[in-house]
Amino acid sequence: MIHRKHNEGPLLDVAGLNTIRVVLDRSETARTEIGYEVWRAGLTGPAHKHDKKEQTFLITEGSGWVRLADEKRPVTKGDLIFIPVGVEHQTIASPTEDLHYLLINAFLSDDKEGHATFAEHIAAVKAVRRAQADGKATSAAAV
Q1: For 43-72, what is each residue's pLDDT tens digit?
Q2: For a 10 Å CB count at each end of the chain, is N or C smaller?
Q3: 24-46: per-residue pLDDT in tens?
Q4: 89 has which bridge partners?
Q5: CA separation, residue 143 to residues 13, 62, 77, 96, 115 (Å)
Q6: 77-84, long-range: CB < 8 A, 24+ apart
Q7: 54 lies in a domain?
Q8: Residue 88: which CATH number?
Q9: How far apart are CA 90 and CA 108, in angstroms?
Q10: Residue 142 included in any domain
Q11: What's the chain's Rg over C-alpha atoms?
């Protein structure tokens, strides 16, 4: 058993866009990791997709929108969003309040996207996320 609080793990900065507090690292499990994400008010995250994991967001504070493919839905505390593998998605925080959610990553294979830890994964993708956010990426890369 692993037992910890959502605010006790290492804090990762994703290219100045959002932060992720590592609650359960991929190095500790067979195919799961959990992070507590915070998107600052007014932030529109880059559209992207994942080819090797499914994601679930449980909104815990704030409000905003989550876009999946061509559908954009408002989200607020208590909402759960499931993102299937390969579906382009985007997180958008309200202009007036931060958006907080528990992120659950479920990996489709034991290689966990080829990264041993959550921090290693973020280090590998932060330049891509920054380019996507700045409109310099040519597509919603799968990372």
Answers
A1: 988 888 999 999 999 999 999 999 999 999
A2: N
A3: 999 999 999 999 999 999 998 88
A4: 48, 68
A5: 16, 26, 27, 29, 11
A6: 80/56, 81/56, 81/57, 82/54, 82/55, 82/56, 83/50, 83/54, 83/55, 83/56, 83/57, 84/54
A7: yes
A8: 2.60.120.10
A9: 21
A10: no
A11: 14
- CB count within 10 Å of CB 5 equals 9
35 lies in a domain? yes
Q: How far apart are CA 48 and CA 97, in angstroms?
A: 23
| Tokens 């609650």, residue located | 23
Q: What pLDDT does 77 receive?
A: 98
Terminal CA-CA length for the chain: 30
**pLDDT over 70 percentage in the chain:** 94
CA of 21: how far to CAs of 50, 74, 107, 109, in Å? Answer: 20, 23, 19, 23
The per-residue pLDDT for 95 is 97
How many of the other CB atoms lie within 10 Å of CB of 141?
16
